[in-house]
Amino acid sequence: MLRRMSVLVVVATLLVAGATVGVAGTVGATATDTGSSDSTASTTTDATLSDEANVTLSNRTSGGTTVTIQQAYLPEGGFVTIHDGTLAEGGEAVLGSARGSSQYLSAGSHSNVTVRLDEPVENSTTLVAMPHKDTDGDRIYSFVSENGEADGPYTADGDIVTDSAQVTASATVSFSDQPTDGSSVVVDRTEMANGGFLAIHDSSLLDGATFESVRGVSGKLGAGVHSDVRVSLDEPLENDDTLIPMPHRDTNDNDQYDFVTSDGEDDGPYTDQNGEIVLATGSAELTDTANVTMADDVSGGHLVTVDEVFLPEGGFVTVHDDNVSDDALGSVRGTSEYLEAGYHEGVHVVLDEPFTQNNATAVPMAHRDTNDNEQYDFVTSEGSNDGPYTDDNGAVVDSATLDLAAGFHVPDQPSDGTTIVVDHVDLSEDGYVTVHDASLNAGEVTGSVRGSSEFLEAGYYDNVTITLDEPLRQSTTVIPMAHLETNDNEQYDFVTSEGSADGPVTTNDGSLVIDSGTASVSSQVTFESQTSENGSVTVQSATLHDGGFVTIHDASLLEGAVFDSVRGTSDYLAAGSREDVTVELDEFEESGTLIAMPHRDTNDNEQYDFVTSEGAEDGPYVAKDIVVAPATVNVSDSGAGGGTATVSVSNQSADGEAPSVTVDSATLSEGGFVTIHDATVTEDAIGSVRGTSDYLEAGTHEDVEVSLDEPIEEGSMFFAMPHKDTNGNEQYDFVSSEGQADGPYVTAEGDIVLAGAEVSPSMDDGGAGDGGDGGAGDGGDGGDATTASDGQPGFGVVLAVLALLGAALLVRRS
Question: In the prediction, which pLDDT does 765 show?
Fold first, then answer.
């Protein structure tokens, strides 16, 4: 049923500003717009068919995380957003009703548009599809994060264009034809709204053998998407057959599959909106002949992906080079982990000896595990163990040509808006992996850059975390792109050089090496170091897509004091974004680390009940971990917790055998220490400590000599940093306390006080320290006399966070 909702009834004046005419940007060469990996969207780019947008959403089944829109026409391009039933309440509820939005869709008609939901549906419900414009032309859906002032809905005759349908929370499943040894099969993908099991039925199900046809069942699968699910068959196949994977519920919640033993009373199958059982079919071909398939590919030379492998008795896939015919052992470049018997797709092989020549030939070969130890021993045994599978043509192999450039993959992922994880990176040359947003497709080549990895040498990397320079405040497409290091300074200069340095990696045909994924952001909070003057703190920004609160916890949260650590919480915040949120604190009289944490309003009473309900209500927003933002808060005039400091240090050389650094001047208003950190201070506050002074009384100290724990092997930046004596014992405990004691002095703005200088090993030839061209040690200016470092991570938090909050704080830079 197609509906047009009255603007006044639904959104009052909130959406009127967002209903201005949008500007469709130019489609970029990266082709990451229009649909996703879960959709097939056919597009008509001729936007002259009609001036009015329309959308069709039919009653359908969803596995919980996605909804497919049958058809959408957007005359000026934009997005299709899924809203829940609270849309009808109007006002502030409109923003909170948005459950997910499509990727950018070009002007024209689109079919089978898949929308990934930020929060899965667990029960059958009415959902509303609404076409939205791209009013700012950046191809990023920002209707909620911009409080309705951007990317408003399409209208027709003054009404918002929508369609609604009943969406049944159920399951989906897909299954490919495949070879098998009869003992197991692999289901490509299943999605279950409420979790359950995958039962494999044989073709006797088609003859009515409901229970007898069950040949195997997976273990319990949680709600969500599961890929490449291997199911062992309790009764091995004896012939080729049609197999039928069927998602089943766990209706009695005992984590056991009871459908057969209960004669169908428990753990019945998922059904669609018409009551039909959800299932798939595919052919299983019984064979004992191994097979391996690999297509030509783009690679960084350190990782090879073999498309398909069938190993009837288990074993390995080994990648040889094109010298395999002459040297079976010496041609081995790398091998997979042990693969159990059966069919495998997308097998990654990390190479011990990378390919370095472009258009190299990779020869994947199926190998046995002849000694049953699940270790690849072909090379170490000089060919006597774990030899190749063979067929009538000899060893079972394939070959493929590698275009040496780069390779990586970014999965769809929940995000706190500050980091993106690329799960593997393969670079043929030194460089970076840079995250662009969807405005790249609108022609914003440098403006689309959200963040870049640290400098990466050529090689293979797992789980590269990229901290974003500008946080994401809404779910969006992220586009990782491989960039070169062109000017040899190990700094990413593509943006600052306006594209003249550190340009992107390209393939043989000039294509960019990119990937794309969806970062699902339901909340984002920015909390910067500051001084509290009046018993309150300011959270610089907070975006809550479902509304709620921002709560301030103290550092005792890291010790497990979940409720007692709460120092204050904001007023109720409606869905959307807020700047400069003030939170009044209850009893916070000593400077330290505070943690801003967005919380939901789970009982919809606009009252913060997390503490009084002992966590049953108003729990925190969660991405992969709890969404948090730590910051150092200095309490003005708070006695031992406050104080001021300055420090200066000059470029110098240090004796290689008994190295020390001389700090020109240090003023500590309340005494303490001067610590020397190396250049890793931005990554590891504790591990970067190279030495510290004796205890210094309050006042000014000249020429403070700090002995270093280890010799200096090469010139580098070192940082002098005044630290407090927070526990009054005149012993430096910052490292031994893992940052909980003797933290650094901070400025009135909450920035860490430090000064940097170049320090190099002393040289016998007088090249340094002689007033000549030696550079370091020439009495130069070094860094500014007092330099404030904005956002050095780790102080007062560091390692204890892992116990409660996982990696959430470790990667945040407040």
Answer: 40
Distance CA 534, CA 45 (A): 58
Residue, of 386 and 797, whose pLDDT is higher: 386
Neighbours of 152 (CB within 10 A): 26
Burial of 381 (0-12, 13-18, 19+ CB in 10 A): middle
Q: Is residue 494 part of a domain?
A: yes
Least confident of 239-248, 270-279, 778-787, 801-810: 801-810
In a shared domain, residues 51 and 128: yes
At 14 the pLDDT is 29
Give the pLDDT of residue 34: 52
- Rounded to whole angstroms, the Cα distance separating 236 from 781 reads 77
Same domain membership, residue 710 and residue 746: yes
Last residue of a domain, one of 259, 286, 313: 286
DSSP 3-state assignment of 319? strand
Is the same domain home to 421 and 515? yes
Cα separation, 209 vs 198, in Å, equals 17
CA angle 505, 510, 514 (to 5 degrees): 50
Burial (CB count within 10 angstroms: exposed 0-12, middle 13-18, buried 19+), residue 126 = middle
Q: Which amino acid is present at 548? A: G
Return d(Cα 813, Cα 553) in angstroms, integer. Answer: 17
Write the burial class of residue 430 (CB in 10 Å: 0-12 exposed, 13-18 middle, 19+ buried): middle
Is the residue at 810 inside a domain? no
Per-residue pLDDT tens digits for 314-373 = 999 999 999 999 999 999 999 999 999 999 999 999 999 999 999 999 999 999 999 999
3-class DSSP state of 336: coil
Could you list the residue range(s) of the whole structural domain that residue 217 is in? 171-286
pLDDT band at 796 (very low <50, low <70, confident <90, very high): very low
Confidence of residue 32 (pLDDT cuts 50, 70, 90): low
HSE, side-chain direction, 13 A CA sphere, residue 539 = 31
Count of structural domains, the chain: 6
User: Of 552, 501, 548, 553, nearest to 523 (Cα)?
Assistant: 548
State the amino acid at position 146 in one-letter form.
E
Give the β-pairing of 400-404 and 297-299: parallel
**What is the DSSP pairing of strand 184-192 with strand 197-201?**
unpaired
Q: Which pLDDT band holds residue 624 (cuts at 50, 70, 90)?
A: confident
> What's the full length of the chain, in residues?
814
Intra-chain end-to-end CA distance of the chain, in Å: 48
In terms of Cα–Cα distance, which of 239, 230, 217 is closest to 184?
Answer: 230
Q: Which residues contact 419 (CB under 8 A, 6 or more apart)?
A: 465, 466, 467, 468, 811, 812
CB neighbour list of residue 510: distance below 8 Å, 6 or more residues apart: none
Q: Are residues 531 and 621 in the same domain?
A: yes
Residue where a domain stops, chosen among 252, 270, 286: 286
Residue 800 located in a structural domain: no
Q: How far from 302 is each of 63, 400, 550, CA to CA, in Å?
A: 36, 15, 45
User: pLDDT tens-digit profile of 555-594?
Assistant: 899 889 999 999 999 999 999 999 999 999 987 777 788 9
587 and 456 in a common domain: no
The reply to whether 297 falls in a domain is: yes
Confidence of residue 11 (pLDDT cuts 50, 70, 90): very low
- Integer-rounded Cα Rg, in Å, for the chain is 30
**Which stretches within 391-541 are classed as H helix?**
none
